[in-house]
Amino acid sequence: MKRFYSELVEAIKKEKPADMTNLKIxxxxxxxxxxxxxxxxxxxxxxxxxxxxxxxxxxxxRTLSGVASISIMTAPFGCPHGRCTFCPGGxxxxxxxxxxxxxxxxxxxxxxxxxxxxxxMQVFSRLEQYAVLGQDFDKIxxxxxxxxxxxxxxxxxxxxxxxxxxxxSDFSEEFFADDKxxxxxxxxxxxxxxxxxxxxxxxxxxxKILQLKSKTTTKNNGSSSNxxxxxxxxxxxxxxxxxxxxxxxxxxxxxxxxxGNQLLKLGxxxxxxxVQSVYETPLKLTNxxxxxxxxxxxxxxxxDLGFKINAHYMLGLPGVARDEEISGLKQxxxxxxxxxxMLKIYxxxxxxxxPLYLQWKRGQYEPISTSxxxxxxxxxxxxxxxxxxxxxxxxxxxxxxxxxxxxxTNLRQYVQKLQQKKNIxxxxxxxxxxxRNKMFENAEITVTEYDASGGKEFFIAAEDSKNNVLLGFxxxxxxxxxxxxxxxxxxxxxxxxxxxxxxxxxxxxAEEKQVQHRGYGKKLMEKAEEIAKENGYxxxxxxxxxxxxxxxxxxxxxxxxxxxxxxx
Length: 568
Fold this sequence. Notes:
Elements: H1 2-15, H2 21-30, H3 39-44, H4 48-55, E1 68-73, E2 90-93, E3 96-98, H5 107-114, H6 119-132, E4 139-145, H7 154-175, E5 176-177, E6 180-181, H8 183-189, H9 199-217, H10 225-236, E7 242-250, H11 257-266, E8 270-276, H12 280-285, H13 292-304, E9 308-315, H14 322-334, E10 342-347, H15 355-361, H16 370-380, E11 389-392, H17 411-422, H18 429-432, E12 444-452, E13 455-464, E14 469-478, E15 491-499, H19 520-534, E16 539-542, H20 549-554, E17 558-560, E18 563-567
Parallel strand pairs: 1-4, 4-7, 7-8, 8-9, 9-10, 10-11, 15-16
Antiparallel strand pairs: 2-3, 5-6, 12-13, 13-14, 14-15, 16-18, 17-18
Helix pairs in contact: 1-2, 6-7, 7-10, 14-16, 16-17
């Protein structure tokens, strides 16, 4: 075994392959290995010096945008309005007690179940996985899934989010010293290397994590959930592992001013909004519990509070003809009342245990097929604007729990094949970002201005127009209304600042192909401030994750309520 790992490391350092898979297969055969070791096993059997070389050849697909993401699930709660006809999950579903709209078979849901839906445990175990893969994970985008979060008890909300922040800060203090991962201490705590999924090891490690959670929590005994949240947010601002963005899911009827203010208190920076359709009929037929008017109002309020909006949009809903699907997606980006910043497309799946399943069995509903969904999405890619990011084109629900609908989990590949066949070029952010093996030459700052939700938006981009490569961008908004005391009549809002590349650890020097920390963020901010001043605004407010506030301080910003602010 030792000879295998030593030879593998030497080969990696010498050849620097783009992917370790073939190299592992060749050497496994040479050394008579019974199975090809996983990347996790390779890292766990490597020394601290060897890890640096191994990092160069891993493909951290979840960190291409420059940030490592962690998705965690809330405990199963029902939605106040009842249940959508297509929703498979929730309390007492056919899949058991699982989060709303999930089946319990998705990767994030399975992790949540293994960790008893404990926010601290979920975050801690995900950080462990990033560490054993040798990836940089000091900048975290935390995503809260599992239903309409703002409808849950506020004390539960505060404690759940506080525990997530706490897990990042505790992991930082426990396993990092002098800005480096203490590999020996990490391996001892997690009992590695050993059989990674060994039940006894997992059980012992869980107990240790809970002891750590309990030990550090006792310091704040007597604090209210609100105070605990404030303490953990402040603590995370300077932790090694920082939450630079917090995403929370909700429905439009639970995305109004009261809910938006609570989300700001939690440190939320992006809202995943269950729009689902721009047509009224399918919302009624599926018991969504909200109207198009709710969607329009919620979108406007949340943008005017500074949030980024990631719209969830479904294809194949009852009451929508196939020829209406494209026009619906067009309306989503042509009608100023909508215009989300990001988009997740979910072709409707028929799952046993739902009212939709019974309708399908009775012949009252015709599900959308894989080929139909791929055709619609590929055509929609002709008109997606340059300021939207298409995050997903399908649910991550495994096909073995679905009864009808799209029967391929790799739908995006089918879409891409159709694009190539029809020579369709998508200009969305995801398709242009530099982290996806795209090279760039000369970057310039460009500005795209558009009207949205009663306000004025400026998509300020650092891009190589010649090669159609995006290096980073900033979203500047002149709000349509002043919904908080911080947002004065002459205050502009920066809703997002992002520089794309493979994740670069805070404080590390950017490598040749990497973009982060080359000053593009500062240039984009300066351009936004210049545009605001030219238009008569004298204050800039930034919606910032707890872990990004130190960055904005370096640019002259300071605390202003829930925002970071600066006089122009």
